[in-house]
Amino acid sequence: MISLRLDEEALRGTTVVVSPFVQTIEALALLGRHGDEAPPPHTRWARRTRSQVGARRWRQLVQVGAHLQDPPIPSSLAPAEAVAATDLDSALAAVGPAAAELELGRGDFIDAVVTLHEVAIAPVWPELRRLLDAEAQRCQQVLAHGHGEELLHTLESRLRWASPVLSIPTAVSIPQGDFVASGLTVGPTAFTRGAHLLTVDDRCGALLTFPARGAGSLPLCSTTPTGGSRPDRLAILIGSGRATVLRTLVEPSTTTELSARLALAPSTVSQHLSSLAEAGVIAKGREGRRVLYQLTADGFELLRRLA
After folding, report:
1. Taking the complete model, does pTM exceed 0.85, yes or no?
2. Are 284 and 272 a contacting pair, CB within 8 Å?
3. Of 21, 41, 129, 154, which residue is least crowded by CB atoms under 10 Å?
4. How far is CA 230 from each of CA 99, 125, 165, rounded to the nearest angstrom?
5. What's the pLDDT score for residue 174?
6. Low-confidence stretches of the chain (pLDDT beneath 70)
7. How far apart are CA 255 and CA 11, in angstroms?
8. Residue 24: which of 115, 144, 155, 133 has the closest Cα?
9. CB–CB of 69/58 below 8 Å?
10. Which domains are present in the chain?
């Protein structure tokens, strides 16, 4: 059990965040905890991810995730600026050096986050974002009426609030189980089965994630066989990031639209688009003031054969 002390002012000022960075960290922690034996509804997602990244990268993901499974993680790995970022590149730019006690380097952490996001988060981000936004809106409606205490009771049934202490169940023993926070941010996630004190920042307070309602209905949690046990041949050939962009372009889109859908920085999307255009599998054209990218005949054929 973790105890988090919050004064009434901190509770009234609770904020809600939807973060692609936080989703990826929670997904990494899930892999670190269970590997490809993740419990439902994530079993198929974990096994599909393993088949897509290959043996070497899979070991890296599980090893990094194992460092993140015991809450809370060092605030340098999840500073407030990273949590608030709307795209992954901006979030990673704010990440500080990893804490020595984790025996985890910043580079290893960032590599794992980028790999998992590109392979397993970005392809489903539009659907995932809609679900998380609905949860965030529900939380904000409760907070708008000044009911911070009521919100805590609705996040996860095992949370216990006895002012000024929020008790958070945990599956592991925490050496330092009592924390004090100057503020509270809550964030819905599709990758945790219970409330999770992700980090406590001396400057910005605590970040508490909680399971989003309806997460089991997402494509990433589907129990319907999808062929996900087969290797992702397109990602192996051109890289997971470019493969995700190419698949998304079945609907012509602008750089800005792709960036928003995939939670990637516009500069990253532009690099992928440049490479795909040079290979002749996409082309760009104008529609009024919009510059649209779309699949060429070769692009459609590549998807048909490999995707």
Report:
1. no
2. no
3. 154
4. 37, 22, 48
5. 59
6. 98-102, 171-177, 202, 216-231, 307
7. 39
8. 115
9. no
10. 2-216 (no CATH), 232-306 (1.10.10.10)
